[in-house]
Fold these 3 entries.
Entry 1:
Amino acid sequence: MELKEAIGIRRTIRFYNPYRPVEREKIQKMLEAARLTSFWGNVQALRAIVMFRESSPPENWAAVIAPLGTSQLKHCPAMILWYWVEEAIFDRKAGHLTQGERLHELVAARVMGVDEAAEHKALDQLLIPYFRMNAEEMLKSGLTEMDCGQAIGMATLVAYEEGLGTCCIGTGELGGVRERKMRKAFNLPDTAHLIVVMSVGYPLESREAGGQRPKLPFEQLFFVNEHGKPFARDPKVVEELKRDKMIQAPAPLPWRQQELEFVHKALDIPTSFIPAGSSS
């Protein structure tokens, strides 16, 4: 599968074949892709805990289930908890800037700077002291979450190339009951920042999953030079991307209603995400 087609066929998959296990090697390929993704300062703060339904403790699975909207977690054969750890950037207790070591590795790998010795010296005398003084602000900057998202996105595309489907699900209110349960079940350090739980499995629904989801108009999202000046969408590029299967038929496809009825019945799940009797 070519990259553009992998992007095009990606859907949020909510219905999985519960009887078909996910091969360990396919999960490894997803993690390998996440590991190779660019990360600011080369800190690689992203971490992941993988669970396979046939071998993981039931109490760990129970910890991630929310009262509403997580039926896919009850049926998927595998899931991944994605999170990042502060120690990859800065060890608060020791006052140690871990990022400094990773920057030195970049210099040694000849990624930047002509004079290797001068680059190491500049790091020690200028950049690393600056980063250490501003470590708290760097932890809050959003750069870490952005690069974690890039890595999770790469893992997602590999999953779809391997014939799998995924769905990213929030970890609940910060410090809430569900998050506390997950921290305890997975023995997470206090400095771990939970990102998402990702369900993984072979789709019980078709790979098209009813078609590409509705998106906002291109010109409403992207601009040239300043906000409000739309980036003009070239129809020829659109046609090229359709040929490459990146832009696909929009939802809902004609048979989607029947497919939804089938998967809900097959998995014995409610026909609505909102339980009967719930207040609106």
Entry 2:
Amino acid sequence: MALTVIIAAMLAVDLLLHRDNHVVGLREAGIWSGIWITAGLAFGVLLWGWQGSTAGTAYYASYLIEKTLSIDNVFVFALIFTYFAVPASYQHKVLFWGVVGALGFRLVFIFAGAELLRTFFWTAYIFGAFLIYTGYQMAFRHDRKVQPERNPVVRLIRWILPTDAHYHDGRFITRKNGKLRVTLLFVVLVSIEASDLIFAVDSIAAILAITTDTFVLWSANAFAILGLRSLYFLLAGLLRRFKHLHYGLAVLLVFAGVKLILAETKVGKLPIPLTLGVIVGTIAGSIVWSLLSSRRAARPLPGSAGRDGHP
């Protein structure tokens, strides 16, 4: 209960400080990303001192997985904003309410998933197989285009609710000819929530491989998601440099799936420190690989100088 109050208070402060529609710059995004990450890491220290090293290590492992997988959300959010041509000044508002919805979805998924694993051990095999398949999809089918207009949730909204294909100064609802209509910005919000719902299934299944302690899972998830809005504005222009990061994310999903399945065999649960090491090593390795590849691609080819008559 206390954690929910803290999260609500932090969201209220965020909403109060960003209540106007404005373009979020790199400096502002960097400051807020630092604030949210510091808050998440600091909570882990408190949890470590309060409940011990097992809970603390599980929290940090879950936090890292959720934070890393949320980077992939940024790719999709950027595509959705580009597809709907959302003005930069309205994007922060959509992402704020998107984060609120994401927290609600994840709360439901965490408690439902943990209860399933406790009650029916065989669901671990289903979750594990799902994660392995998702990892394969991410590694080898990552370049598929996102088509928001084909999302069944978005199509359902447009079919049920009268929709106005304009942004109307950043409002979600407007009145036209005496009738209420949802604006295009509302449709964008639904697209963001629908895509995050898919990511939530992946990420919750992955962190359930670490622990079924719902408090640890919820706190790690909440602090990772709280900074998603500022993370988007910080990384949206830099993601091209991490072109191999999705391979690292795929490895983590497959690892989580295998770990979940092994937990129900004679092997048992893998040590959490080992899990944390695999997470950190995989993330670092994929980022270094991406940066080295970008640097090699930027170098001129041997003998290319002077081909156009220039030295």
Entry 3:
Amino acid sequence: MRNTGPIKVTRLHPLFGAEITGIDITRPLSAREFGPIRAAFEEHSVLLFRDQPMDDEKQIAFSENFGPLETTGSANPAAGTKFQRQSNLDILTGEPIPPDDMRMIYQKANYFWHSDSSFKRVPSLCSILTARICPPEGGNTEFLSMRAAWNALPPALQATIEPLIAEHALEYSRNRVQKGILSAKALAELPPVKQRLFQDNPVNGRRALYIGAHAGFIVGWPRATGEALLHELTQRADQPEFRLSHAWREGDVIVWDNRAVLHRATYYDTVKYKRFMQRTTIGGDVMTVPQ
């Protein structure tokens, strides 16, 4: 595929998400070619590209169009690289990892709705996931429009949460799977941070609810009360009409806006099937609150 002519943007859902066709993103993109992709990203929050076979070098090159990439911390098997490895295959041998292995237990936290890197002082702009090996069934990635979730909140609840600050940490989401699963090194790398409960898009001004599994409690509130509010907001957001589920096939690439959507993994048979996905995470440039 040659990068000629205008791209085509086809909606995937009435509220968000679009498939982009008419461009080969495995090749270097000029600023003129990337411009419409970035505009579609700001508008639709989730972009799907089909039939784009990626290797690591090509994925990094495409990802860098969005900004500088985060370096993966010690909690992931791909620590020290630009990739978050999402797989049931051993990184050294390529063989399936047993289900009771701590590496597979750790990944169960991906089944919770979350925004990547909300546990960092400067949260992520977006994530890019490429499908290298896909199971024939299961293993979908689901997305929630947090713009729609914000708009659906009663005005009084919007006013209540607008001044609030939540504390986020990787530890909070991982403890929901198994307490103490993170090493002392991982905990030291990622101390808790504070985030607002919403983010405004700097291009179009659209507001999105900003929560997820890394959010532990509300600063200045009794712990149980804050946890209850975060749970209520997640329940309000998790509506079928706000949800987009993607069934992967090899060669798929999805870019999603961590400021505007939550996402989660879904179950697949890790004993029966192989799955290998590579994620790059693009760092943001604005803190939601002073730390």
